Sequence to fold (922 residues):
Amino acid sequence: MNRTHLAFSKTGLALATLVMISACATQPPAPTEDRSVAEQVRAPAAEQTRGLQVYPLRNPAVTELSQAALAAEQAGDLDQAALLLERALRIQPRDPELLQHMAEIRLERGEWDQAENFAARSFDVGPRVGQICQRNWRTVALARERLQRYDEAANARERLQECQVEPPVRL
Amino acid sequence: MLRRLLIHTILFLFGLSLGAGLPWVWWLDREAERRFAERQWTQDSRIYARPLELYAGLELRLEALVVELERIGMRAGDPSRVGRFSQQGPRINLHAPAFRFPDQDQGAQRLRVTIRNGVVEALERSDGESLALIRLPAAELGDLLPAGSDDRTLTRLGDFPPLLVTGIQAVEDRQFRHHHGVDPRGLARAVWTNLRRGALVQGGSTITQQLVKNLFLTPDRSLIRKLNEAVMSISLERHFSKGEILEAYLNEVYLGQDGAQAIHGFGRASEHYFGLPVQALDVDQIALLIGMVRGASWYHPVRNPERALKRRDFVLGQFLNTGLIDAGQHDRLIARALDVATHRQRRQRPNAAFLELVARQLRRDYRDEDLRGTGLRVFTTLSPSAQLAAERGLARGLAERERQPNELQGAAILVEPSSGEIRALVGDRTASRRGFNRALDARRSVGSVIKPFVYLLALAQPDRYTLVSPITDGPIDVELPGQALWQPRNHDDISHGEVALMDALANSYNQATVALGLEVGLPALYRLLGQLGIEPGSEQHPSALLGAISLTPLQVAQLYQPLAAEGYSAPLRAITQVVDVDNREIGRYPMRLRPIREEGALALLDFALRQTVLDGTARRLPGLLDQDPGVRGKTGTTNDRRDAWFVGYTRQWLGVVWTGRDDNAPAGVTGSATALPIWAEIFRPLSHRPQPAQWPNALEWFWIDWPQARLASEDCQNALAVPFIQGSQPLELSDCFEPASTSRRSRGRRR
Fold:
């Protein structure tokens, strides 16, 4: 592969000229509450528990926050769910489950690029196999489809297949 | 005849006063009603630190917890009282006051926190029940655009402590529940006293009258004003309930000054004098504040403590007389000393630089009139204990290392890399000074701090460059159209010949870096900086490869953030949430990520920046830390030692330190001798968890006969385990390579 230039993400934000703190302004409200989108990510993965699964150890504080986030999400309060997940991520910034949950919340809020980026981060630090891997790539695929990057979406669907790994044979 | 004249005169006067007086009374009545109904109180918009979240396993030093507690207004004392904490060995018993979070009203709670070896070991309620997570109240950092002369914390009647509500009546107006605005008996008593003394010395004012006076009238003591006051008081009582009047009174009454601002109401007074929300006040504290109603300056607990104490005890006596407290309580309470938080000088508190950052960001997103006096609450990312560490570290570090007192200035920033949240920001060695904010506004040459980005560009081409690629550090002539030949030199004026790429970075060789930079291309560097959110200007000169680019410390922090966050760029942010006076969210600044898709190259660079600390220009650093949790870093020094930089990071903290002179004259500073030790000073008190590096799967590790680009065996003399992007390792074998041993291993270092 000939890589003569850094292929930095072009999809990113063109950060403000006022670079002192290139913070994002207030989030515009999601166009639609696309609840079904997140369901598309979770349900198919949940059915396939046959392959190798990797469960990271959880800090009880993180468990409490992520359960509260789930409850808020189910109650339709996506803002609150996102806030709770941010608090949890301050405690465990590299928790793939939290990052993927955040990706799904962003998906439901219609923030496609953030959904993709959080899912990618979750994959990077995650087990890269099993359920969470499938949710990662499903999220990425859906987000890319919504962003009309169909080739890349197809690519993500291929990666999804690689998440299925047969468990090691136990003696 | 005379009698008729008298009667006529009296009738005439009566008619006149009726004719003129009735419209006057009617007008006053209307005015009082309208103005009371339409009154709008200003309340400053306040800025809060991030609330500290406590949980078992949190890395937190005991001293840092104490700092955090003090910043939320708590003090050492008996934790049975709200707002107090006590320490017994590794355990802190604390009684945290109530706090209104945007998403939750949290009551006061008694807790036990056990901290051993810098880690929270246990977190319990005082009854022993174990807790997974506790969010402490957020520390108030200061006000946003103070709304001018007044400040208050609006409090609903039902939220005041019942003792305050009844106590104020016992002292100021016992007939409040029964009168209709004026209390004739009280008035008669006052009139009698005044006549006897021949002057106006006593006011028999009811609470309603006092409120009318404060809200609508001038403070002069004339008979006309007294009449107006009486009419308007009766009017208020006709139109509004006792509860509404009392609530307004409790929020309006004048209770002293905070700098140029007047403190109105018990809510703010409680925060000002005791550092506590009014709900948390104890009986003696309530009595002190009630006593101040008569004369906030005369009975000021700090300026006139003896008078204040006497007055408080008088008020406690009134409480006893009216049965609000019993004799035992009374005797116990008057034995207590005055207990005000004299250290609480909000205006002089540090954080000036950070508050300015917050204000700038808010001004960009909101109109001034929406921010000023509207009682917004702004929740930020600042960590009070990290801020203190940064302020102290910078001040001490500069004082120790400058040639003459107060020659140097500096700036320091601490960021949590994965979220981009700014934890501390210092823009002046005297942190409380407002003025030139160097962290945000000092555009200074960055020097070698730019170099890692040149190397990142090279390492992203694994077919051309690896960490062990030989590059030439030698005299180099750069021809520029229409300009003199540019001949960069090394800091030590020595050319080092052929060197391994990683050594060129770790030792910050200029000539090697220019050679490499010209290969990868200047436009590529400018493109990369732009993608990382920095606009260094359009004019491209190769001296940019050596950092002849002026950036602010905050921009440098933004550049390094993705390096410290495993390649995920997150815009630096200081604000998380803004809520209005009714706790409705009006603004949110969520965490955002953007991947820099060069996982492998970033990991190689990370390894090289670790090598810089272990064996390069930053090798002094580990000796300055009690424990090195794997810091990566880069020094920077500019021409004639005008600027010194150090940027260092772990997965938990990214720190940027700049020092130099404000007039940009040679300052005798260097990155490794000035900025680096200051960075260490700041970093030492921070809590951190040692984290094993997690390398991406795309890397493979090989033993290298360092600095030759040859594979070696583990037991070769110069063997060093070096990561490579898959397939990019050298193929040549070292002389000491033994085919029997495997040259590949997962991790390690030997040299």
About this structure: Chain B touches chain A through 66 residues (CB under 8 Å). Residues 698-751 of chain B form one domain.
